[in-house]
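Progress against Task 2.4 (sequence-to-structure conversion) is shown through the following example record, which the project officer requested during the mid-term review.
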Amino acid sequence: MQAGDMLWQDGWFGPARRLPSPNFGPRPAGASIDLVVLHSISLPPGRYGGPEIEQLFTNRLDWDAHPYFDQIRGMEVSAHFVIRRDGELLQFVSCEQRAWHAGRSSFQGRENCNDYSIGVELEGLEDEPFTGPQYACLVPLLQALRQRYPVAHVAGHEHVAPGRKRDPGAAFDWQALVLSLGWPATCFPFAPAGSDVTAAAPAPGDFHRR
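Structure tokens generated for the chain above:
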């Protein structure tokens, strides 16, 4: 058994706080879990630190608690992981299962990204900077996922559902993420095959300077 395997149990990541969601299903037979989709979320929009995200993903949200919730009333959604503003990592669905995070989507000609992806939500708004602790959590999470599964690509919701979604948004620091991970440029949707995006990336620690 490899050391990384000790962090996992049936698709659950040991360092994450487990909050099982009922909103999941089986992946198609033979699906290769090779994509991570990054999202942003806040409930209500722009409000951080409350229990609403957890309540939404576990079908316990009080739809009458805020006027915005009328727009999403009855929605049943989930993601595998949520990273809070303070860097806390939550897990709602086993990575072995299909979470309901990407909706109508495609990546490199493959439809239904939920079938073969892992969804990671960052607490935040599009176009509003994410925090240093969030990136400090995201990098080792992606590394652990790549060690456990055949992850070959990391994309934003905006890349798999262009025109419909725009998260995590312009304030997400892709270049610094690329540098911190040290993965091939082809792992990221904005890099043409053979390009060297790391050459132009900011130095470590620049995540939250934008």
